[in-house]
């Protein structure tokens, strides 16, 4: 173990006075640093010129939000074949048109059409297919219930399901706008990185399949507040996100190891405490008065067999083994992977950025989980925009995800068409799962390389910044690390495109 400083300072939320003064980062314009962005800009007149002015009403935030809403609307249009009848006309039509959504089916299937209260009212088998309680976390259940209350005016069940989908699509559009705003503002000098989220084809295709955008928006808001050095408020948002979907709780792991390395224990304590408090405020009342309904999500997650999109499904179909113990294997792989990410955080020559570790830990969960629903890509899109803002790598990964999006529906069409077998056979579906796995691993590999060799990190290389999304961690000195420490050298303000380089290892 190497200590970068001779004594451990008390935990604090401000940068150490011994830290070198940071060079003022310049605003990053993607056409100056990214070849793909520069080439694509020819469609609208070419890269930004040296005489361009930033005084236009069309600020990056306004442009990116409008683009995001436009892409979201295109995603809604892509669902129109199902809205016009494929959700209701037969089992395979919604798969052939690749426009399936859980939302209209669960309006009746989870008792919302009959006015049942989630978690408190048992759902009859005749409408639920054996799912006696709503199998979603409490905050998502509240979101679904709100949309059900706003669903008015239908003359029959089919019209009510259509209205319910439209209401949810409108509410989720608000979540998409919040998500984009948070990503744009997290890295103050890199607003255009929000365009990765706005133009992500997988976001447009999967945004209205399920309710994941609620948790994704809350997580992005929590990361924004952390970047503003407000750890308690950030923890509250992460706790609310965890009350909507389980995966945001994993972000406390990267915060733990990064705060450990920088000895920012007070900040981590505030974040963890805020997360626990917010989660408890949402969940404890339901636990006390409807425990069986509240526990259904956790029991279903544990008992669910190997399912679509996972590595375990490939192994199951290729070997014939049932993999009933996939939970155990997944937990072992997750533990080993998290240990590796922690080692990366504590051993890298320069402390990795929060977004880098956040992407790695959520990607690890996605890769080892026993199910991968197509909308899970939403968890990773904003983290990818902050962790590795380079269009080439982002588009390679998105191409793999779009391929998987199409592949799963074609596979379901194949399995649901009886003896006709119209669609993608199991062997083809295994290939698209493999494409999803490899695409995610590719982006993980690029991020690990950036962490081990900071000169390759586009965020640090483009403008000389340290961790613009790190809040109290940004340019904080290292106190605890494993391996040779390197320290920032004080330099004058850098011009765009230069990199603040590292000095020699400290004794």
Strand content: under 5%
Q: If you average the pLDDT, what whole number results? A: 87
Q: Tell me the series of helices and strands, N- to C-terminal.
A: HHHHHHHHHHHHHHHHHHHHHHEE
Shape: globular
Termini Cα gap: 12 Å
Structural class from helices and strands? mainly alpha
Number of domains: 1
Largest sheet: 2 strands, antiparallel
Low-confidence stretches: 1-24, 488-507
What count of helical segments does DSSP give? 22
Radius of gyration over alpha carbons? 24 Å
Sheet with the most strands: spatial strand order: 1-2
- Number of β-strand runs: 2
Portion of residues within helices: 55-70%
Question: What can be said about this structure in brief?
Answer:
The chain has 507 residues and is mainly alpha-helical. It is built from 22 helices and two strands. Residues 1-24 and 488-507 have low confidence and may be disordered.
Description:
With 507 residues, the chain is mainly alpha-helical. The chain has one domain (59-484). The protein has 22 helices and 2 strands. A two-stranded antiparallel sheet has the order 1-2. The radius of gyration is 24 Å and the shape is globular. Mean pLDDT is 87; it is low at 1-24 and 488-507. This is Glycosyltransferase 87 family protein. Residues 12-29 have a biased composition (Low complexity). Residues 1-10 have a biased composition (Basic and acidic residues). Residues 1-32, 484-507 are annotated as: Disordered. It is a multi-pass membrane protein.
What order do the helices and strands come in, and which of them pair?
Layout: H1 35-40, H2 60-78, H3 80-89, H4 93-96, H5 102-109, H6 125-128, H7 138-150, H8 157-186, H9 194-198, H10 201-206, H11 212-227, H12 231-244, H13 252-262, H14 265-289, H15 291-303, H16 311-319, H17 326-347, H18 354-368, H19 377-387, H20 391-416, H21 426-452, H22 458-463, E1 486-488, E2 502-505
Antiparallel strand pairs: 1-2
Helix pairs in contact: 2-8, 5-8, 7-8, 7-12, 8-11, 11-12, 12-14, 13-14, 13-17, 13-18, 14-15, 16-21, 17-18, 18-19, 18-21, 20-21
């Amino acid at each position: 173990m190497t200590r970068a400083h001779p004594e451990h300072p008390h935990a604090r939320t401000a940068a150490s006075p011994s830290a070198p003064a940071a060079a003022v980062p310049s605003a990053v314009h993607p056409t100056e640093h990214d070849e793909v962005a520069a080439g694509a800009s020819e469609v609208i007149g070419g890269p930004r010129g040296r005489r361009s002015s930033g005084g236009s009403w069309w600020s990056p935030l306004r442009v990116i939000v409008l683009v995001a809403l436009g892409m979201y609307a295109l995603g809604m249009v892509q669902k129109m074949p199902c809205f016009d009848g494929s959700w209701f006309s037969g089992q395979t039509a919604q798969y052939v048109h690749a426009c399936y959504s859980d939302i209209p089916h669960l309006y009746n299937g989870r008792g919302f059409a009959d006015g049942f209260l989630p978690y408190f009212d048992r759902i009859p088998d005749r409408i639920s297919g054996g799912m006696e309680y709503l199998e979603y976390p409490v905050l998502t259940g509240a979101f679904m219930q709100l949309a059900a209350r706003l669903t008015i005016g239908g003359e029959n069940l089919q019209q009510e399901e259509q209205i319910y989908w439209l209401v949810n699509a409108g509410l989720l559009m608000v979540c998409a706008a919040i998500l984009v705003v948070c990503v744009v503002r997290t890295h103050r000098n890199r607003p255009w990185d929000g365009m990765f989220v706005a133009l992500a084809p997988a976001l447009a295709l999967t945004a209205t399949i399920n309710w994941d955008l609620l948790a994704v928006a809350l997580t992005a808001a929590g990361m924004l507040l952390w970047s503003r050095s407000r750890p308690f408020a950030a923890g509250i948002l992460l706790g609310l996100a965890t009350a909507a979907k389980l995966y945001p709780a994993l972000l406390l792991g990267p915060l733990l190891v990064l705060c450990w390395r920088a000895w920012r224990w007070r900040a981590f304590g505030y974040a963890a405490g805020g997360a626990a408090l917010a989660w408890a405020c949402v969940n404890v009342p339901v636990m006390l008065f409807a425990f069986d309904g509240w526990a259904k999500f956790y029991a279903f997650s544990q008992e669910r067999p190997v399912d679509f999109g996972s590595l375990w499904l490939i192994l199951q179909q290729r070997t014939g083994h049932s993999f009933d113990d996939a939970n155990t294997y997944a937990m072992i792989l997750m533990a080993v992977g998290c240990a590796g990410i922690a080692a990366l955080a504590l051993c890298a020559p320069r402390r990795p950025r929060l977004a880098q570790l956040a992407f790695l830990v959520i990607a690890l969960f996605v890769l080892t989980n026993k199910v991968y629903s197509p909308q899970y890509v939403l968890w990773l899109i904003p983290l990818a925009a902050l962790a590795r803002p380079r269009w080439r790598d982002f588009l390679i990964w998105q191409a793999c995800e779009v391929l998987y999006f199409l592949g799963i529906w074609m596979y379901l069409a194949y399995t649901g068409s009886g003896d006709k077998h119209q669609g993608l056979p199991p062997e083809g579906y295994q290939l698209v799962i493999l494409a999803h796995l490899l695409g995610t691993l590719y982006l993980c590999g690029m991020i690990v390389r950036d962490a081990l060799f900071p000169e390759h990190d586009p965020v640090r290389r483009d403008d000389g910044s340290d961790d613009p999304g790190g809040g109290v961690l940004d340019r904080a000195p290292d106190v605890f690390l494993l391996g040779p420490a390197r320290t920032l050298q004080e330099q004058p303000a850098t011009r765009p495109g230069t990199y603040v380089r590292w000095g020699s290892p400290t004794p």
